[in-house]
Fold this protein.
Amino acid sequence: DVKVTQSSRYLVKRTGEKVFLECVQDMDHENMFWYRQDPGLGLRLIYFSYDVKMKEKGDIPEGYSVSREKKERFSLILESASTNQTSMYLCASSPQVNWSYTFGSGTRLTVV
Amino acid sequence: RKEVEQDPGPFNVPEGATVAFNCTYSNSASQSFFWYRQDCRKEPKLLMSVYSSGNEDGRFTAQLNRASQYISLLIRDSKLSDSATYLCVVNGGGFKTIFGAGTRLFVKA
């Protein structure tokens, strides 16, 4: 069974901390994505990557950065966590040939 | 105007009912269309792709109307387990994939 695995299901961090969210996929997909999902706002794209070491900003990249050193791993970094970054974070991957996404189970991050 | 719009619902229907959701999109150059299902506090999962000719998967039928720029999802003989949020997803080419905010469905006994 193909999978996208996110390292943590729940996280609580303090304001100002540097936060790392890890995502690994085993489908050899070229594309990987980070979204956040908030009630009433739906899924919003933070960053995506179409190849190793390649990254592109999504719709809401401010306060975030990403790293893709290996094809299967895509990390989201919150440089200095703030309370408005409390959210559900979802990682996804997709093949180049179509745009059907497989999502990880999500990380619910609370910044206090 | 949002790029992808859905009626947020909720739709409350009895078991066995037929329910339909519509979704409109603004980019006429959109190329790929999908319906995803998201259970409460879980990740979205692909339900079905939507093709121009329409397609069916068991109790679920998806349709695309390019002229009017909308897609639809029909669920027949609703089950309690169909209760979820249904996300309309439109790809405008390349990495431009837009998720709708979702339509909530509650199926009651």
Observations:
- The longest strand of chain B covers residues 84-91.
- The interface with chain A takes residues 32, 34, 36, 42-46, 49, 87, 89, 91, 95, 97, 99-102 of chain B (CB under 8 Å).
- The mean pLDDT of chain B is 93.
